[in-house]
Amino acid sequence: MSRRGKSTVFVGNISYDTTEEQLRDTFAQVGTVVTFRLVYDQTTGKPKGYGFCEYSDPETAMSALRNLNGVDVNGRPLKAAIAADADALATVMAVTPEQLAELPAEQRQQILQLQALAMQFGVTRG
Fold it and tell me: What architecture is the 3-120 domain classified under in CATH?
């Protein structure tokens, strides 16, 4: 696993009116934030409701998971996961309906279940 996956926290279910500064302040409660990056839709420029918080070490990232998952920010409980897990969810969300239709029924069901999980974390289709 890359260093990013060990020390970067995926943050989902972010209210669209929440700023990077507010999130940086929230995640700084458990340690020094190296970077915080909200993800924006390339077409509309609007936030997609998730982002990434990088810490300098995996221990601080794990502390964020333990202490900040479910914390309310602007009326929404944040969802936190190690970024490597979130990368996998984003990949699943990239599967198009056309691609799903070509898969065997069992694989299609598995992808749909993973997509439902990804949506619980605030990951949406690009």
Answer: 2-Layer Sandwich (3.30)
Burial category of 14 from C-beta neighbours within 10 Å (exposed 0-12, middle 13-18, buried 19 and up): buried
Over residues 88-93, mean pLDDT? 72
pTM for the whole structure = 0.67
pLDDT tens profile 94-108: 888 898 899 889 888
Give the chain's length. Answer: 126
The span from the CA of 7 to the CA of 69, in Å, is: 15
Q: What is the mean pLDDT of the segment spanning 68-79?
A: 95
Amino acid in the structure at residue 10: F
Report angle CA 16, 27, 21 to the nearest 5 degrees: 50
